[in-house]
Write a structure and sequence with these properties.
This protein has 2 helices and 11 strands, in the order ββββββαβββββα. With 188 residues, it is mainly β. The chain has a single domain, classed as Alpha-Beta Barrel (Tubby Protein, Chain A). It has a 9-stranded antiparallel β-sheet, sandwiched between helices. A two-stranded antiparallel sheet has the order 8-9. A hairpin with a 5-residue loop joins strand 3 and strand 4. The longest helix is centred in the last third of the chain and has 8 residues.
Length: 188
Amino acid sequence: FLLAARKRKKQTTSNYIISLDYEDLGRDSEKFFGKLRANFVGTDFTIFDDGDKPGQRGAAGHTREELGCVTYQYNVLGTRGPRKMTACIPAVDASGRSMYRPRSESDSLLDRVKNDKGLEEVLVMFNKPPRWNEELNAYCLNFNGRVTEASVKNFQLVTEDNQGYVLLQFGKAFAICLSSFDNKLACE
């Protein structure tokens, strides 16, 4: 067991609680690990740690920090095919400290990725494009036996510099993978 998540009900956008305990999934729990929040159409996701919302009344402890973001490209034509996603996490220096330093409250990882600015402090990954397989009549990626069923949710993340080296496959980064399951009005 690694992590568990529960989608919060009665929210205007998709919002997941991430916990270290699959039976204790409360926001006030000691096992609360963080959260994943989506925009209204399900194309942009932000990953937060267990801190408090900035300016929250009665907030005890530390202010939450962004741990990453995931963005899915709009599918305006509604065509079936592979999703296009970008994921971003703070880069770390040789000592393991985060290099991401927000310049203001509105300076988010998501804004940096969308505006293609300030990316020297972050690691930007995108999904490796699958290849069309004529025999199977489907898009395919080589998961070396790990994936047994074809799905639009399967992905491998690589960087622009080294597209041959897979940094993450579906199932190895909980919050990024969790974003893949959520409904995406603009991408389906």
